[in-house]
Design brief:
Distance between the termini: 69 Å
InterPro entries: COQ10_START, DUF1731, Epimerase_deHydtase, NAD(P)-bd_dom_sf, SDR39U1, START-like_dom_sf
Number of helices: 15
Shape: globular
Number of strands: 21
Family: Belongs to the NAD(P)-dependent epimerase/dehydratase family. SDR39U1 subfamily. Belongs to the ribosome association toxin RatA family.
Radius of gyration: 25 Å
Organism: Planctopirus ephydatiae
Helix content: 25-40%
Strand order of the largest sheet: 11-10-9-8-12-13-15-19
Protein name: Epimerase family protein
Length: 494
């Protein structure tokens, strides 16, 4: 009888010991230039998950309830083992300013618990430590087969997360110390590529955001202010209000690479920028209390094809379709200027993110070894990381001395050949399949010259002169950060 009782008691202990043997752990820390309380607030703010999700991972938020301080839950669709799986995570063990945990309720792991710890190191300096305990499905075989893969994946992911957190909080500290505080910000083009990075950057910095939309669109997290629905052709506000908005970021416009440049499509490109901008500016100018600043997107297409000429905000306009559209786009802001609104026309270069735009289009051919230079490769491609573009927008809102044209490109422009070589090296692929200009023209028409072969060597003089600190000035470092490649052999951003 005693023997049977001992066996019954020992069995659960043996099972727990077996499970514990398969439990693996991961830990990474980063020192941040703010207090533990501020770092915690950043993680608790709406949009933090979006800021921390690596852009190379196709992770989608399905739903979320609550927050990290009240047992909130988030449901994600994540890539795992060559397919998509649902990951349900619940926040728990919250001690405000010190720690919280994310525990997998359902997902690809047998067990997954993420503990975030925040500790003050001194005055306005803290350490964030991410501790993860996990168990792979399949017991000892699963641990043996997948352990090193998961370890490397976590190291890459948290390298990205910690760099992003550090850079975002560094900019917050700089702006906070200059006296810049929370604003009510209206963002148009709110479902587009740039805004999907900008809005979570704004909300985690403590700003409240209203999305300016042409039709109601579900929000994946609270932005702090109700959406505004409007008709961009007439300027009529159909739902919501512009009253009380302190800053406006206007990003709306037809994708210039969204179709062959027929006369009808070129007119759509022009009208989406010029008509929409003028109607918005007229609406803002008519407000009883207009916003203090409007940051309106423009493009380095303003300068046209200029070869090796170094172009600054003082350089003359170029010739052709894109320069003409860019000039009219900037002139459409005149009603806002006349109303005393400070207008910044952000002349944006090639925006780098694997979530869309030029870089996304290049990844597939480069992955299959079919990448190569465009034409002779001597044309300048003036690029900017999507995080720096959004950082420059925030800097423009916060800097009263900035007005008029402002170039939004990285300080170190590269030729197409240099860009091709760096991307191939980062992806560890050959790039030996050139794209002749005549073939591109046959496939894309007029658009091919302006988007692939025109050369614009643009310098961000006004951003630099007003103290903007670029996160990425080196193309290779930027691409490694965005694509989840090792950064040990290149210079890290500040």
């Amino acid at each position: 009888m005693a023997s049977h009782a001992a066996t019954a008691i020992e069995q659960p202990l043996t099972t727990e010991a077996t499970l514990a043997a398969h439990l693996q752990s991961f830990q990474r820390s980063v020192v941040l230039p703010v207090s533990a309380e501020r770092a915690f607030e950043w993680h608790a703010a709406p949009g933090a998950l979006e800021r921390l999700t690596p852009p190379w991972e196709e992770i989608r938020v399905i739903s979320r309830t609550g927050g990290i301080d009240n047992e909130g839950e988030v449901v994600l669709s994540v890539p795992a083992a060559g397919m998509r799986q649902t990951w349900v995570a619940r926040h728990s063990h919250c001690i405000w300013g010190q720690e919280f945990r994310d525990i997998q309720v359902r997902g690809p792991f047998a067990h997954f618990e993420h503990r975030h710890r925040f500790a003050n190191l001194g005055v306005n300096e803290s350490q964030l430590t991410d501790e993860i305990s996990y168990r792979l499905p399949g017991g000892s075989l699963g641990a043996w087969l997948g352990g090193s893969f998961v370890e490397q994946k976590l190291a890459t992911m948290f390298g990205y997360r910690h760099r992003t957190t550090l850079m975002d909080l560094t900019q917050w500290k700089q702006l906070h110390e200059s006296g810049f505080s929370s604003r009510k910000v209206l963002v148009s083009g709110a479902t587009g590529l740039v805004a999907s990075t900008l809005i979570p950057m704004l909300t985690t910095q403590g700003h409240r955001v209203a999305r300016l939309l042409r039709k109601p669109t579900p929000q994946v997290y609270a932005t702090g202010l109700p959406d505004v629905i409007w008709n961009s052709a007439s300027g009529e506000v159909q739902e919501g209000s512009l009253d009380g908005v302190e800053a406006v970021v206007h990003l709306a416009g037809e994708n210039i690479a969204g179709g062959r440049w027929t006369p009808a499509f070129k007119q759509r490109i022009r009208d989406s920028r010029v008509v929409g901008t003028r109607k918005l500016c007229e609406r803002l100018a008519a407000l009883e209390e207009p916003p203090a600043v409007l940051v309106c997107a423009s493009a380095i297409g303003f300068y046209g094809d200029r070869g090796d000429e170094v172009l600054t905000e003082e350089s003359a306009m170029g010739q052709g379709f894109l320069p003409e559209v860019s000039e009219a786009w900037e002139e459409a802001c005149e009603p806002a200027r006349q109303a005393g609104i400070r207008v910044v026309n952000l002349r944006i270069g090639i925006v780098l993110t694997p979530r869309g735009g030029a870089l996304q289009k290049l990844l597939t051919p480069f992955w299959w070894g079919a990448g190569g230079v465009a034409g002779n490769g001597s044309q300048y491609w003036s690029w900017i990381s999507v995080d720096d573009l959004c950082g420059a927008i925030l800097h423009s809102i916060a800097t009263p001395s900035l007005a008029g044209p402002v170039n939004a490109t990285a300080p170190q422009g590269v030729t197409n050949r240099e860009f091709t070589e760096v991307l191939a090296r980062v992806m560890r692929r050959l790039a030996c399949v050139p794209l002749p200009e005549f073939a591109a023209r046959m496939a894309l028409g007029e658009m091919a010259h302006d988007l692939l072969f025109a050369s614009s060597h643009v310098q961000p003089v006004r951003l630099l002169s007003t103290g903007y600190q670029f996160r990425f000035t080196d193309l290779e470092c930027c691409l490694r950060h965005l694509l989840g490649r090792p950064l040990a052999d290149v210079k890290l951003p500040h």
